[in-house]
Write a structure and sequence with these properties.
Strand content: 15-25%
Shape: elongated
Distance between the termini: 41 Å
Helix content: 25-40%
Number of strands: 22
Structural class: alpha+beta
Largest sheet: 9 strands, mixed
């Protein structure tokens, strides 16, 4: 015990980061003064009490007019965890924890898209009706387009996709050479679609984030090579997220083109009907073939079995559908103008987020793909006034030690400083948000050889580890 008190005494030399509170639980007089400037070596800890997750916004029972029926698990869990809050039908506030997760997912997407030569840009959301009328999609899209007029009476729409816009952009470059191809341009922006009945939270909304990429190639053969490279990048992306994704043949729909595939996450809540062969790799959306067909068109001996899926990605080989209309040309090897071959490739960014929660989580708590969890570790000190109250200092020291020893985890470790609450209540909150690792600092931390209770959310496994053991475990955590 003498050694334990020495450790606690050493910990007291650093100004405590747990907020001072009066007996009533409110901030004490010291809170009126600014905290001492943190040292250059150690950043202040992320405190759960300071995170913007208002408990009243997490009550899924309030204001049914905005929230609608809780139609799926991901919608309920994301709202209960304080990730999103409904605004208008099909539109949501993305609260800070959700934004962190979306930004991480975007970084993973950027890595994969830039790994195959993609270049990121940003196109206007406000799109001229003239472009859509030129491609004849202004009428084809029907009520799905959000349409508006400016003060001069000109027609516009809020872009649900950007084939017309990007092709016009490339067409304006009169000096494009075949040596610059393939050209892959992509963006990650908000998109808008006037869904008649938005549902399933972020799985089917009116305003959402999407990655859309457009390729320009010199020949049909080169375009198919680009198409395959993007499909492989999508497969790597979902593998990195730990999601079992199926690439299925699909209908080209109102995008058009000659070839199309969807990337589907198998799920009972899915709105797409899939036909999968039990004997070979063939799979297709029912929309792409006869729904009553049972024999596999690829191996001819297998039987097609129907299942459901959530579409999280879609690829199209467009050919010259748009490039011909908008005159997107390049100079070929003979220095003659030639029309580019195109492809387009979408990923539903916020849909991936919700779909991952839908297929990975329990009914009580979120389970994230590790790479995109808002935070990786949550440290729980003991309840204030409990028999092991002095372990709070060790919890505080642990947070800083993790950041110092594992630079990749800086900013990824949070301290649940709401010590007026029991460990049980805070554990429930931590499970609800889905921190991949929860570290409880309790009685075992005050032993001669301190140990920490570690809960792995993905498996539900609980172990007691020394500090070195904890560092070894968390040292393997991958971050982006």
């Amino acid at each position: 015990m003498h050694r334990v008190l020495q450790r606690v005494s050493r910990g007291l030399r650093r100004p405590p980061i747990l907020p001072a509170r009066s007996r009533s639980g409110c901030a004490g007089p010291a809170a009126a003064f600014p905290a001492a400037a943190p040292s250059r070596r150690t950043k202040p800890a992320v405190l759960v009490s300071r995170l913007y997750q208002p408990s009243n916004l997490r009550d899924v029972g309030q204001d049914c007019r905005l929230q609608g029926e809780m139609t799926c698990k991901s919608q309920r869990l994301m709202q209960q965890a304080g990730l999103v809050h409904p605004s208008n039908p099909g539109c949501y506030y993305y609260l800070p924890a959700a934004v962190r997760s979306v930004e991480k997912l975007i970084r993973v997407i950027d890595q994969e898209m830039q790994g195959i030569g993609g270049q990121k840009l940003d196109m206007p959301s406000l799109c001229s009706a003239d472009l859509w009328k030129t491609s004849e999609r202004w009428d084809l899209m029907g009520k799905e387009l959000f349409r508006l007029k400016d003060r001069h009476g000109a027609d516009y729409c809020l872009g649900p996709t950007h084939e017309e816009a990007v092709t016009t952009l490339v067409a304006h470059q009169s000096t494009l050479s075949y040596r610059q191809l393939p050209l892959l341009l992509y963006q990650i922006t908000r998109k808008f679609r006037d869904e008649p009945k938005p549902k399933f939270g972020l799985l089917r909304g009116r305003e959402f984030y999407m990655k859309d990429m457009y390729s320009f190639d010199a020949s049909e053969e080169a375009a198919h090579q680009t198409y395959e490279a993007v499909c492989q990048a999508y497969t790597r992306l979902f593998a990195r997220l730990g999601l079992r994704c199926v690439q299925v043949q699909a209908d080209t729909g109102n995008i058009g083109g000659k070839l199309s595939h969807e990337f589907q996450l198998p799920a009972d809540i899915g709105e797409d009907r899939l036909l999968v062969c039990g004997s070979c790799s063939f799979s297709a959306n029912v929309e792409a073939m006869s729904s009553d067909r049972t024999d596999c068109p690829q191996c001819t001996t297998g039987t097609l079995v129907e299942s459901k899926g959530i579409e999280v990605g879609h690829t199209f080989y467009l050919g010259r559908k748009y490039s011909h209309i908008f005159k997107a040309t390049f100079s070929n090897a003979q220095n003659k103008p030639s029309v580019a071959e195109m492809g387009c490739y979408g990923l539903g960014v916020t849909r991936i987020l919700a779909a991952a929660i839908e297929v990975m989580s329990t009914e009580e708590g979120i389970r994230w793909p590790g790479l995109i969890a808002p935070y990786q570790v949550c440290v729980l000190p003991p309840k204030k006034g409990s028999k092991v109250d002095e372990a709070a200092i060790l919890a505080e020291e642990l947070v800083h030690s993790l950041g110092d020893a594992l630079p990749r985890l800086r900013g990824e470790v949070v301290l649940d400083d709401r010590t007026q609450m029991t460990i049980g209540k805070r554990l429930k909150d931590a499970s609800r948000l889905g921190y991949p690792y929860i570290v409880v600092v309790g009685q075992a931390a005050l032993e001669e050889t301190p140990r920490f209770e570690v809960i792995r959310q993905q498996t539900g496994e609980t172990t007691f580890l020394s500090k070195d053991g904890l560092l070894d475990l968390l040292g393997g955590v991958e971050t982006v």
